[in-house]
Design goal:
With 103 residues, the chain is mainly β. Helices cover 0% and strands 42% of the residues. A hairpin with a 5-residue loop joins strand 8 (75-80) and strand 9 (86-91).
């Protein structure tokens, strides 16, 4: 659950609850992503008031170490598996499709 303030932090209101929890990326006051590392990512275009689920083309279950978006379209993800192998991915369409930059 996220909280939202529209008056500089004087008061706060809860946002809509998410169907799943996980790692969070906040690109701006309105663009928020939550990804549990599986095939579904949750995106809020309005600061957490509403959420959209997006199916990704990669399943990073148990390997997602971090991810970050810089706007509604562009983001990166870093994975790390149990053997210490890491990979680096990029998306240019809001997380629907990911390209391995360093496999």
């Amino acid at each position: 659950l996220f909280y939202l303030s529209r008056d500089g932090g004087r008061t706060w209101q809860p946002t809509s609850p998410l169907p799943a929890g996980g790692l969070v990326s906040i690109a701006s006051a309105t663009e928020v992503w939550v990804w549990d590392g599986g095939p579904t990512m949750h995106f809020s275009p309005d600061g957490g008031l509403t959420w959209q689920s997006r199916t990704t083309d990669v399943n990073l279950t148990d390997t997602l170490a971090a991810f970050q978006f810089v706007d509604a379209d562009y983001g990166w993800a870093l994975t790390l598996d149990m053997s210490g192998h890491s990979a680096f991915y990029r998306t240019t369409d809001g997380g629907a499709h990911w390209t391995a930059l360093i496999p």
